[in-house]
């Protein structure tokens, strides 16, 4: 099959990682995979460096013109983001090709329901990365295939990890960390208050916040200053090759208010880091059955207590690590994710006599 993947995001977050991982697996299975992406974006550069054909544009106009001129050359067009399903939906009558959309969020639609559901209905396959992400479209009457995100081990750059540890003075300290943009939905202020509560009990740790800037960044920095946590809560910003840094962590913590799945938690599972998390959306699914400690959204006291427990209870750490590692290998393997998509792609192509294959 000829497969066009669409992702027009600027940065490098979970959706972009999943897009590239899907492309790699589809290529490994023998299919011709092309990317339509934002010019200058991290995804476009990484896909190009990996040998993929990449068509990149600086604006939506260029993207839509590409679809109108060349979209019919593909068997399947897969929108990996909410904005790209909009453009595919608008071009669908002209394209006459199967359209796939993967939902990676778990928000309720609210006032945007009517407009959003219209474009969702244009997808020939609506996929969601978790039951939490599938809940809203199902409530709107759509049929949804749940295809969880995948995670793959990356080669370890020891020098990078050592350089980072030296830069932030991690030697001799227990390392707590999160990997999340500084946005309201990730709720960094709850993390900061939890660290203040933990600091009142002990002084053997440092908390590293890995993640890009966002709409809660200033509030988070102000709160760290207000609570006097400058030596215990450190902002490291966006980090390339973040997988190397999981090897430095004693506990991974996530305080999201909304989360469709949480690929950063899957990273922690894969690199044997015990997890403390809020029970938002898909986090409740992946951390079930003793794969981590769950707390109520916004409850900084519970988060602090769970971190302390995970640091001090060696049998608990060991059991959660073992269960999480076995789970991520079984349910979130890249080949498993790709095969599920390819089965659906083939079904759509067989049903669509206009496809070139």
UniProtKB/TrEMBL annotation:
The protein's name: Glycosyltransferase involved in cell wall biosynthesis
Keywords of the record: Transferase
InterPro entries membership: Glyco_trans_1 (IPR001296), Glyco_trans_4-like_N (IPR028098)
Keyword Lipid biosynthesis set for record: no
GO molecular function: glycosyltransferase activity
All copies of domain Glycosyl transferase family, residue ranges: 171-325
Sequence ranges assigned to domain Glycosyltransferase subfamily 4-like N-terminal in this UniProt record: 13-151
PANTHER family the record matches: BLL5144 PROTEIN (PTHR12526:SF572), GLYCOSYLTRANSFERASE (PTHR12526)
